[in-house]
């Protein structure tokens, strides 16, 4: 069984191939030019996907030692994401599958992240808690099987990754915010400022809008405006913000561990690359004697490998889709998440 996975939901173009249950190619091209605009420009993202997708598919096939006719399943991200970017990858996948008379498998991007831990040598065990943390999504899920996923909580406003991006921009670090904040906060004390953690009606929901506002108000009260922050104190503010953001995520996971009998805890999404968050969840998992799974950095961000793997699992469960399946920009009924 040879499965190709295509990911083009935002600013990464990625193509991966799984052959006989082994990942044999995973190519990722990041659109670094967006940093000059302070965020992803949708039209430019779509154009970049168009330019590089076909060469990446050819390179992946060469790396895997396969010809196009040897593919069995063509999987691609259908959503959520930027609609123009999604259409590039999904339309290409439809055309490829149709021309080869192969199976076409649209994949939910979030579900790809949920199951990215299975790309590792040590895999999650059902049932497991899955914390998805990225620029577009922050969700806590109870995953009971391949097809049974219960949403415990989600963000009621901004996603965690979006908060990192906006605070990074506020402090003048630039885009993307996650690595910028992490690098600035490295080895800094976290008690320079105390930022609140939002309490939501649903105990497993998240909110980062208030945290962002608190950082802004702190800066306005202490310095007047961001440009007047002494260079030595920028890192201290970053460290205090990161500490509060990670605490907001980890406390909800710990609360769920107290109330749900699970075997594993899985962290995924772009913000899963954050070392403080990894360490915090690892420590919590150890305290509760649960296996902790986090993908390698290659699989934290958007990648074709997770799309290929999810497509393979859906195919093996007999899930089928027609070629008229459309891209969707936000989470909707095209998901197994309850």
Describe what this molecule looks like in 3D.
This protein is of the alpha/beta class and 338 residues long. The mean pLDDT is 95.
List keywords for this structure.
338 residues, alpha/beta, Nucleotidyltransferase, domain 5, five-stranded mixed sheet, 10 helices, globular
Compact summary:
This protein is α/β, with parallel strands linked by helices and 338 residues long. It is built from 10 helices and 10 strands.
Task: Please render the helix and strand layout as text.
Layout lengths: L1 E6 L4 E8 L2 E9 L11 H23 L8 E7 L3 H18 L2 E6 H6 L13 E6 L4 E6 L5 E6 L5 H11 L6 H9 L23 H14 L8 H29 L4 E5 L6 H13 L3 E3 L3 H4 L3 H13 L22
Parallel strand pairs: 1-4, 4-5, 6-9, 9-10
Antiparallel strand pairs: 1-2, 2-3, 6-7, 7-8
Helix pairs in contact: 1-2, 4-5, 4-6, 4-7, 5-7, 7-8
What class, by secondary structure content? alpha/beta
Strand content: 15-25%
Poorly predicted parts: none
- Shape type: globular
Strand tally is 10
CATH C-level category of the largest domain: Alpha Beta
Number of discrete helical segments: 10
Helicity, as a percent range: 40-55%
The overall average pLDDT, rounded, is 95
In spatial order, strands of the major sheet run 3-2-1-4-5
Radius of gyration: 20 Å
CATH architecture of the largest domain: 2-Layer Sandwich
End-to-end separation: 30 Å
Biggest beta-sheet profile: 5 strands, mixed
Total count of domains: 2
CATH superfamily of the largest domain: ATPase, nucleotide binding domain
Topology as H/E string?
EEEHEHEHEEEHHHHEHEHH
Enter the CATH topology name of the largest domain: Nucleotidyltransferase, domain 5
